[in-house]
């Protein structure tokens, strides 16, 4: 029973986001982080950084071979990005809802992509698509000592997922 409780807690309290180069360039770090925190996400880790082409290629490995892959890698390594681990119950699904459809023309009103994306390929933000990928992507950007949780956030229960 204890194990089952732990297992449930491990699922889905964090996700990984990036504010993409175009959104950083257009000075949208503040508005986008503001929307994220207004929707109840806590920021557990945060950095401004820049991906090399090799690092962007690794991050988007799953899309290798698709027609948009080279452009995606080129774009994602074209300038600084903001990477963050954000925390909320059911984080992956909740955040995918907040960012909206991959294609901003299909994204619902009020979503981050509807508000801030320039196009399908320059769509302002990334959000992990599963708990497994959220954990992988978090580890790609952040070490254990770059993640912070005040006592009140009760992060200890899912430390195993790190
Ligand atoms: P996401 O999880 O919503 O970000 O979408 P995907 O994982 O499917 O794709 C990764 C990123 O590649 C997206 O955020 C888009 O910016 C870009 N992308 C996806 N599909 C297409 C496409 O058909 N054409 C172009 N140009 N870019 C795409
Ligand atoms: Mg994706």
UniProtKB/TrEMBL annotation:
<protein>
    <recommendedName>
        <fullName>Nucleoside diphosphate kinase</fullName>
        <ecNumber>2.7.4.6</ecNumber>
    </recommendedName>
</protein>
<feature type="active site" description="Pros-phosphohistidine intermediate">
    <location>
        <position position="126"/>
    </location>
</feature>
<keyword id="KW-0546">Nucleotide metabolism</keyword>
<feature type="binding site">
    <location>
        <position position="68"/>
    </location>
    <ligand>
        <name>ATP</name>
    </ligand>
</feature>
<dbReference type="Pfam" id="PF00334">
    <property type="entry name" value="NDK"/>
</dbReference>
<comment type="subunit">
    <text>Homotetramer.</text>
</comment>
<keyword id="KW-0479">Metal-binding</keyword>
<feature type="binding site">
    <location>
        <position position="102"/>
    </location>
    <ligand>
        <name>ATP</name>
    </ligand>
</feature>
<feature type="binding site">
    <location>
        <position position="96"/>
    </location>
    <ligand>
        <name>ATP</name>
    </ligand>
</feature>
<keyword id="KW-0418">Kinase</keyword>
<feature type="binding site">
    <location>
        <position position="113"/>
    </location>
    <ligand>
        <name>ATP</name>
    </ligand>
</feature>
<dbReference type="GO" id="GO:0006228">
    <property type="term" value="P:UTP biosynthetic process"/>
</dbReference>
<dbReference type="InterPro" id="IPR001564">
    <property type="entry name" value="Nucleoside_diP_kinase"/>
</dbReference>
<keyword id="KW-0963">Cytoplasm</keyword>
<keyword id="KW-0067">ATP-binding</keyword>
<dbReference type="GO" id="GO:0005524">
    <property type="term" value="F:ATP binding"/>
</dbReference>
<dbReference type="GO" id="GO:0006241">
    <property type="term" value="P:CTP biosynthetic process"/>
</dbReference>
<feature type="binding site">
    <location>
        <position position="20"/>
    </location>
    <ligand>
        <name>ATP</name>
    </ligand>
</feature>
<keyword id="KW-0460">Magnesium</keyword>
<dbReference type="GO" id="GO:0004550">
    <property type="term" value="F:nucleoside diphosphate kinase activity"/>
</dbReference>
<feature type="binding site">
    <location>
        <position position="123"/>
    </location>
    <ligand>
        <name>ATP</name>
    </ligand>
</feature>
<comment type="similarity">
    <text>Belongs to the NDK family.</text>
</comment>
<dbReference type="GO" id="GO:0046872">
    <property type="term" value="F:metal ion binding"/>
</dbReference>
<dbReference type="InterPro" id="IPR036850">
    <property type="entry name" value="NDK-like_dom_sf"/>
</dbReference>
<dbReference type="InterPro" id="IPR034907">
    <property type="entry name" value="NDK-like_dom"/>
</dbReference>
<keyword id="KW-0597">Phosphoprotein</keyword>
<keyword id="KW-0547">Nucleotide-binding</keyword>
<keyword id="KW-0808">Transferase</keyword>
<feature type="domain" description="Nucleoside diphosphate kinase-like">
    <location>
        <begin position="12"/>
        <end position="149"/>
    </location>
</feature>
<comment type="function">
    <text>Major role in the synthesis of nucleoside triphosphates other than ATP. The ATP gamma phosphate is transferred to the NDP beta phosphate via a ping-pong mechanism, using a phosphorylated active-site intermediate.</text>
</comment>
<dbReference type="GO" id="GO:0006183">
    <property type="term" value="P:GTP biosynthetic process"/>
</dbReference>
<dbReference type="GO" id="GO:0005737">
    <property type="term" value="C:cytoplasm"/>
</dbReference>
């Amino acid at each position: 029973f204890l194990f089952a409780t732990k297992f449930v807690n491990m699922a889905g309290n964090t996700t990984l986001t990036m504010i993409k180069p175009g959104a950083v360039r257009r000075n949208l770090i503040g508005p986008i982080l503001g929307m994220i925190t207004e929707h109840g996400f806590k920021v557990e880790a945060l950095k401004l950084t820049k991906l090399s082409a090799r690092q962007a290629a690794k991050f988007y490995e799953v899309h290798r071979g698709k027609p948009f892959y080279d452009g995606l890698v080129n774009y994602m390594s074209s300038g600084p990005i903001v990477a963050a681990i954000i925390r909320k119950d059911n984080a992956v699904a909740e955040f995918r809802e907040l960012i909206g459809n991959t294609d901003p023309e299909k994204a619902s009103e009020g979503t981050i992509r509807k508000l801030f994306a320039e196009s399908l390929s320059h769509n302002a933000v990334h959000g992990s698509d599963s708990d497994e990928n959220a954990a992988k992507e978090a580890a790609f950007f952040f070490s254990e000592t770059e993640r912070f949780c005040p006592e009140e956030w009760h992060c200890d229960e899912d430390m195993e997922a790190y």
